[in-house]
Specification:
Blueprint (H helix, E strand, L loop, with lengths): L1 H34 L3 H12 L6 H13 L3 H14 L4 H11 L13 H10 L4 H24 L5 H30 L2 E4 L5 E3 L8 E4 L5 E8 L2 E6 L4 E5 L3 E3 L1
Length: 250
């Protein structure tokens, strides 16, 4: 029985290694196609890696580049955003995303209705969720240590009291930002328009009036869904219904 378990673990290890090796090979092949300016085949190679449930910032970044070069602005923005979520501090990703969004035929105008949300989003924008979560955990440990010194060991001097207060304040701040990051980027369902000149209706039907005409690369928040349509909110706070197949979820 023990030999069987060891053999099973070995087989799993070999399979994982083989999968990683195959993914590396496809990534290299995709890069070669990209260098040869064969963007459709580069996209095909990169997408085969995604079918293995493997994701990474470089993979999404290269996919975004390939789609952009292939003239598909919607998918380019989609994968730049996916890359940015994994590596928010990568300047190349941020630059390419901003550059691609300038090519949208429709520019959202208007101001954010909630400046507090915009301010908090700008703070957490350069940090991924894992970094914030680890920072919160570290601050929690420091806070517990400070409490032990203060109450467990009966140390009542000024540095210890200040340490308790400071660690608590930073713990609350970073924990709050971590929660905001999770709710803003992961719980809020967003999508990118990938179709050319998609109609956005006033209701969940093609018989409804047209509210506005969208454009590839625009980011929308999904409010709800009904019979093949999404009720979406644009960045300028205009709302409407769009066919589900015309957008790709983040």
């Amino acid at each position: 029985m023990r030999k069987f378990i060891l053999l099973f673990i070995l087989l799993l290890s070999i399979s994982a290694t083989a999968t990683a090796s195959a993914s590396d090979s496809l990534f290299t092949v995709g890069n070669k196609f990209y260098e040869q300016k064969d963007y459709p085949k580069a996209i095909e190679s990169y997408n085969l890696i995604l079918l293995e449930n493997i994701e990474s910032a470089p993979l999404y970044f290269n996919l975004g580049n390939a789609y952009f070069k292939n003239g598909d602005l919607g998918h380019a923005v989609l994968y730049y955003l996916k890359a940015k979520r994994l590596a928010p501090d990568d300047l190349a990703i941020r630059h390419n995303l901003e550059f691609a969004q300038r090519f949208s035929s429709v520019q959202m105008e208007g101001v954010e209705l909630n400046p507090v949300t915009s301010f908090l989003a700008s703070i957490v924008d350069n940090y991924n969720l894992t970094t914030l979560a680890w920072s919160s955990s570290l601050l929690f440990i420091l806070f517990i240590i400070a409490l032990i010194f203060r109450f467990g060991l009966g140390n009542n001097n000024s540095p210890v009291r200040i340490g308790v207060v400071v660690s608590l304040v930073f713990l609350m701040l970073v924990s709050g930002l971590t929660t905001f990051k999770y709710r803003y980027e992961y719980l809020t369902q967003r999508a990118v328009i990938i179709a050319e000149k998609p109609a956005v209706y006033t209701g969940a039907s093609e018989q409804s009036d047209i509210e506005l005409e969208g454009a590839p690369g625009l980011i929308v928040e999904i409010i709800s869904g009904s019979s093949g349509f999404y009720n979406v909110l644009f960045e300028n706070k205009r709302r409407g219904w769009i066919k589900k197949e015309l957008v790709a979820e983040l």
